């Protein structure tokens, strides 16, 4: 992370230098290192990354999305703070891991911060990736760019890296924004474990948003029309975020054993439904974030009475929480990497000279 | 008093000697009076009395003469321990005047000493040549001593109870005595005396009277089962009495369970086992036999002990037992309670151990393998399609 920020800092400096100089590049991406007069010429990869990053940052699309997200997050923090303040005087309220409740608490009017991230995060990912390749192709800039001494894999890697960097910056800013606002309003400093849990949550969110980014890049490679890829990405996002749980609920009711006779039967049914649910990355993400942000969560599947006998309600240590959601994390990471791998392979094998 | 009497006797003797005009005759010499007109009379010449009692004689001094006689009264005892008083009209008297043909009554009080042998003691009352022999038969052997007795010198009880003995302190001396009470108990024992509801350390007893004293004995906490004798003493500078009380302590039963390092938590990975060193301590004062170890654990867990039964634990000692706690495969990560009980026939104790279950990291490694496989696939793609 530090490394990325350091690179970013360096890039911002370069951007300033470039802004001072009369800009000659238009809409497309152009190789700029020929004009660079520095002693060390940056590799084409980083140049593309910087350019992409800057384009995204200045685009209306991103501005609107980030505006919505920031507003939503501030609203959710406000809700969390008011609900925390209400419960502060309550004797029964648990003060352990109070700071984490900033991310998971809600006063009922607005969803929690974690919910907003899981809902709006994919949208950012899709918005950053849906026209990554096909717009370049349709504008003809792809062929022009690749006629320069730029490796083809540098192009696709840089597209991905720039977007992921932007997502990282956005999510960390949001996460730290929540932490800062929380510190200011509730005046309760986080413990190191809470801090690490928040950072882990942010990293998982980056992976999750990265998955949607990769998926939309994949669509942008597969579909020649930017509108098609955007719509397919948004359709999938809506399907997994909203409709999938409904459909699974429907299946659950339809397949529920009529006469609940044995525990095994019920258990196998519940496990089957859980497996169906876990096919959705949104569900995996919600499980991972719930466990990371709520240390009291000890199990994600159905529980038998035997497992609960003798158990004491106590928060899990961080390592155990991570171990509990390790399959979810692996699943998200693997899905993200697989999407990237497929889009990479697809792009590398694609005919790029033709416009359509 | 006695000395005063003696002095009177001596002065009397002197007076008589002088009176008789140098006749070298003591009291023994004047046993038989030659021509005395004075007669001494009392009806009871030989009486029986126990030691410590007082005998009062009423002696009539009769003047058979024709003129008023002046009579000097004398008393002679065999041993000086006997005390007497001769009174008339409420006062001590040593010389009488008896009119002719009349009689005067004199009262003689004789105190039988406490410390006296059984037997017959002779006395003589003399009055100007007339002698009245008296005899006192002491019916029993007299004492000068103190008695301290308990009706019930043995009490049985637990180590944590207070033992109360009732003792009677009798003063068999002629004088009022102040007794210091003391107990020669082992260190740690607490012995207190109380009389009339108050704790006392000394007790005053009138002569020939008795007082009851309560002896409270508190054994130390660490006392072992057994019989303990505690000598109790009541002493003055002249007399003392001693008795013994016996405390029979039946052992208390106490047992406690803890771990070797007093930490009541353990870590275990679900599906595998962890060892906990338990210490079973006999905190009572009696030996514990056949201490059974048992555990109540969550369903699917197994708790085994290397020594399921400890044959015997002596008081104050402890035994070590190693427990192996095997968590169920289905155990959730987090904390569970395993309660371990050590029970003998008399007493049982339990220790609740908080067991933190950790999930197995096996699946974690499998996950990392999956990620590595995916990363390997991407690397393969890089190698195959890269740098075009």
TrEMBL record, chain A:
Cross-referenced Pfam families: ABC2_membrane_2
Protein name, as recorded: ABC transporter permease
Segments crossing the lipid bilayer: 60-81, 113-134, 155-183, 195-219, 231-251, 325-347
Keywords: Membrane, Transmembrane, Transmembrane helix
Superkingdom, taxonomy of origin: Bacteria
UniProtKB/TrEMBL annotation, chain B:
Membrane-traversing stretches: 362-382
Domain of life: Bacteria
Record's protein name: Alpha-galactosidase NEW3 domain-containing protein
Gene3D superfamilies linked: Immunoglobulins (2.60.40.10)
Residue ranges of domain Alpha-galactosidase NEW3 in the record: 269-343
Keywords: Membrane, Transmembrane, Transmembrane helix
Species of the source: Paenibacillus cisolokensis
InterPro entries in the record: A-galactase_NEW3, Ig-like_fold
A matching Pfam family: NPCBM_assoc
């Amino acid at each position: 992370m530090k490394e990325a920020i350091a690179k970013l800092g360096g890039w911002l400096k370069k951007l300033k230098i470039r802004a001072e100089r009369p800009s000659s590049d238009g809409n497309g991406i152009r190789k700029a290192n020929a004009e660079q007069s520095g002693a060390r010429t940056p590799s084409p990869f980083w140049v593309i990354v910087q350019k992409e990053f800057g384009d995204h940052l200045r685009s209306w699309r991103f501005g609107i999305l980030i505006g919505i997200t920031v507003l939503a997050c501030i609203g959710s923090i406000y809700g969390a703070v008011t609900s925390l303040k209400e419960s502060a005087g309550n004797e029964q309220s648990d003060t352990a891991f109070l700071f984490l409740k900033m991310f998971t608490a809600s006063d009922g009017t607005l969803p929690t911060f974690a919910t907003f991230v899981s809902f709006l995060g994919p949208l950012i990912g899709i918005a950053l990736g849906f026209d990554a390749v096909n717009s370049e192709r349709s504008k003809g800039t792809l062929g022009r760019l690749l006629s320069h001494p730029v490796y083809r894999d540098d192009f696709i890697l840089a597209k991905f890296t720039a977007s992921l960097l932007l997502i990282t910056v956005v999510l960390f800013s949001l996460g730290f924004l929540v932490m800062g606002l929380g510190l200011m309003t509730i005046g309760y400093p986080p413990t190191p474990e809470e801090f690490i849990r928040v950072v882990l949550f942010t990293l998982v969110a980056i992976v999750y948003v990265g998955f949607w980014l990769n998926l939309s890049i994949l669509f942008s490679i597969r579909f020649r029309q930017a509108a098609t890829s955007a719509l397919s990405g948004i359709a999938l996002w809506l399907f997994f975020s909203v409709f999938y749980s409904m459909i699974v609920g429907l299946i659950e009711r339809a397949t529920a054993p009529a006469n609940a006779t044995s525990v095994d039967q019920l258990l196998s049914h519940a496990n089957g439904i859980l497996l169906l649910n876990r096919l959705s990355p949104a569900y995996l993400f919600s499980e991972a974030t719930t466990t990371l942000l709520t240390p009291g969560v000890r199990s994600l599947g159905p529980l038998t009475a035997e497992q609960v006998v003798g158990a004491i309600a106590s928060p899990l240590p961080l390592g155990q929480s991570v171990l509990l959601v390790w399959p979810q994390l692996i699943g998200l990471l693997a899905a993200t990497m697989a999407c990237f791998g497929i889009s990479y392979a697809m792009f590398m094998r694609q005919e790029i000279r033709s416009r359509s | 008093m006695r000395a005063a009497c003696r002095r009177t006797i001596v002065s009397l003797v002197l007076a008589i000697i002088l009176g008789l005009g140098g006749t070298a005759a003591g009291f023994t010499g004047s046993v038989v009076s030659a021509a005395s007109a004075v007669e001494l009379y009392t009806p009871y010449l030989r009486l029986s009395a126990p030691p410590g009692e007082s005998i009062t004689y009423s002696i009539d001094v009769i003047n058979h003469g024709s003129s008023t006689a002046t009579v000097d009264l004398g008393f002679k005892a065999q041993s000086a321990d006997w005390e007497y008083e001769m009174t008339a009209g409420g006062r001590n008297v040593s010389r009488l005047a008896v009119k002719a043909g009349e009689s005067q009554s004199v009262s003689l009080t004789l105190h039988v000493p406490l410390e006296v042998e059984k037997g017959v003691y002779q006395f003589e009352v003399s009055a100007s040549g007339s002698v009245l022999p008296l005899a006192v038969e002491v019916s029993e052997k007299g004492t000068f001593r103190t008695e301290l007795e308990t009706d019930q010198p043995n009490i049985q009880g637990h180590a944590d109870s207070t033992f109360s003995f009732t003792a009677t302190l009798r003063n068999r001396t002629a004088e009022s005595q102040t007794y210091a009470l003391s107990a020669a108990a082992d260190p740690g024992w607490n012995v207190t005396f109380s009389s009339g509801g108050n704790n006392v350390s000394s007790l005053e007893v009138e002569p020939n009277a008795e007082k009851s004293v309560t002896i409270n004995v508190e054994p130390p906490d660490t006392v072992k089962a057994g019989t303990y004798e505690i000598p109790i003493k009541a002493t003055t500078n002249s007399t003392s009495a001693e008795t013994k009380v016996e405390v029979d302590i039946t052992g208390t039963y106490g047992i406690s369970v803890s771990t070797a390092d007093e930490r009541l938590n353990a870590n275990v990975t679900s599906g595998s086992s962890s060892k906990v060193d338990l210490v079973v301590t006999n905190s009572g004062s009696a030996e514990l036999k056949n201490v059974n170890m048992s555990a109540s654990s969550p369903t699917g867990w197994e708790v085994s002990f290397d020594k399921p039964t400890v044959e015997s634990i002596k008081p104050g000692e402890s035994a070590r037992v190693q427990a192996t706690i095997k968590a169920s495969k289905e155990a959730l990560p987090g904390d569970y309670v395993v309660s371990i009980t050590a029970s003998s026939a008399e007493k049982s104790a339990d220790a609740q151990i908080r067991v933190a279950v950790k999930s197995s990291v096996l699946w974690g490694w499998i996950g990392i393998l999956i990620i590595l496989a995916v990363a390997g696939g991407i690397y393969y793609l890089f190698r195959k399609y890269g740098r075009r």
